[in-house]
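[Solved] Which block belongs to which protein?

Original post:
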Amino acid sequence: MIEKKVIRELTAIVGAGNVFTDKADLVTYSYDAAVLAPVAPGVVARPVAPEMLGRIAALCNENGLPLTARGAGTNLSGGTIPEPDGVVVLTNGLNKILEINAADMYARVQPGVVTAKLAAAVAARGLFYPPDPGSQAVSTLGGNVAENAGGLRGLKYGVTRDYVMGLEFYDAPGNLVKTGSRTVKCVTGYNLTGLMVGSEGTLGVISEIILKLIPPPADRRAMIAVFNRMDDASRAVSAIIADRVVPATLEFMDNFTIRAVEAYSHAGLPEDAAALLLIEVDGHPAQVAEDAEKVEAICRKHGAAGIRVAADDAERDRVWEARRSALSALAKLRPTLVLEDATVPRSRIPDMVRELEAIAKKHDLSIGTFGHAGDGNLHPTILTDKRDAKEWRRVERAISDIFDAALSMGGTLSGEHGIGTAKSGFMERETGPGALVFSRRLKSAVDPKNILNPSKIIGRAEASLDFKSGDLKSGDFKSGDLKSGEPESGKPESGAAGAGV
């Protein structure tokens, strides 16, 4: 239970209308889009000025209270599930676009700005902000930075980290830290900007972001390639990249997902197709024409039964809206949806697709697969009912197998969703104990009281180094266990669109 004096001090900082202690409010901020048990915080505060973040951090540090920053809560790894009786800081009150500089092509924003709002404002100035997470209509830029969100355009244009030029953030004691610059080049001091991107609120609370903007492409062309065999579609992905063509987007859908999406969106997708590739090339008109011709030829060579080119922007937009609805469409089919983002080197896409089919069969589960095939980032989506204990155990084993398969191919646990608590227990499989020891030491140095989003990414386990033998001892994880139990309400859980889907 948080002491009344802390509530009074928070009220003095942000105002009475921006402190929430009612049970209904606390439940609202007790979960995110991960399939994990909710945890009610002790209080929720909504600062409306950046300096308030620093004062809140200092107050939490003085009182040893865990602090979790939260944007829209669309993340899929448990990164914004708070600690029991901790403090949740909402950043949606810091929602100003501070500057769009067309001459130097950057924007300055507060962390609560909605991603799509910035993209639209930038486009109105004749510029382009490429990162486009699936949750962009509601996700905030502070959350995008904290999770290093990706999106459909990641293949050609990269992810959030590729556009963050600088940050302002508050550390655990409440000090303002400025890092990076508005200049194209900056090598002043440690790369704290890079350290903060993807740190999931464990090292500081972001108050301002400088984002790189680029000129928009002059032309673009979208197409759908239809395949009668999944293996042919996945091989076509590898062949396109191997031919040195880099589409703006290169998306994959299996038949299970196609049928779910078509029933949901009525976009005219061919429901009898084994797999679809949704492809868009952009750039100079001559380059677009050449790349589109190459992509069509490669798809036909690898067994495409048909290729449909969008006749206009309206048709193109319908196709991409259908793709963005994949998660929502699948979520309607079963009470619980578990969305993963196992990522492998692009050349291993055919192997990973086959492995996912084998895992679904092995564990007798329905797994719909879609995702950003062009950059190796697939989203195997398990449809289940967490109330069925036997089936949920099969889900847990399947998730472990998916991770092992990705890692065995030189891949990673997460391409864009982050680690949070959902995957922290698997970290050592990928990084080894040395990286965890180093990360925990770093965290301990900048946050000695461990108030900043504790238990995320690296878990709570103590790590030690035996200097006599040099053996790394990473300890036992106390978080990241997929056996998270039922939600307090007893209602079935289902994921929502999150960063980068």
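(Second protein starts here: sequence line, then its structure tokens.)
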Amino acid sequence: MSKLTHIDEHGNAKMVDVAHKPDTERIAIARGEIHMQKETLDLIKAGQIKKGDVLTVAKIAGITASKRTSDLIPLCHPLPISSIDVDFAYNDSPPSIIITATVKVTGKTGVEMEALTAVSVAALTIYDMAKAAEKTMTIQNIRLIEKHGGQSGDVVNE
């Protein structure tokens, strides 16, 4: 097992020093799902959720959250993100919305946490927007799909 990078020699939490690392292009793609009843999915598709356009609000929330990841996760570095895209796909069986976030940066550290944060907050926003219609929605399977760039190389999980 490799040494934990966020723990010093005394077992204390620390932010990793990335000053020596070169700036390289880095990309991360994360995905997650929010499952719901068919009736709720139909309301979202038809634009009939009383709070408004669910997916537009969720997209903006995911983008905003991605940019604020270092404010939410204590040992993440603030990054000059160059691109964030949050996409949605409807799934009829089981009724759900698949959320995919792609984040890019040219920097010294990767954007996996930024992509995962975008998906997480987009899913939470969908829940918030549609909870008046259904309180049994479940957020599931948030995970890293791909990462490219950096010293550890490429990772493809699906």
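Accepted answer:
You had them paired correctly. Confirming on the second one: The radius of gyration is 17 Å.
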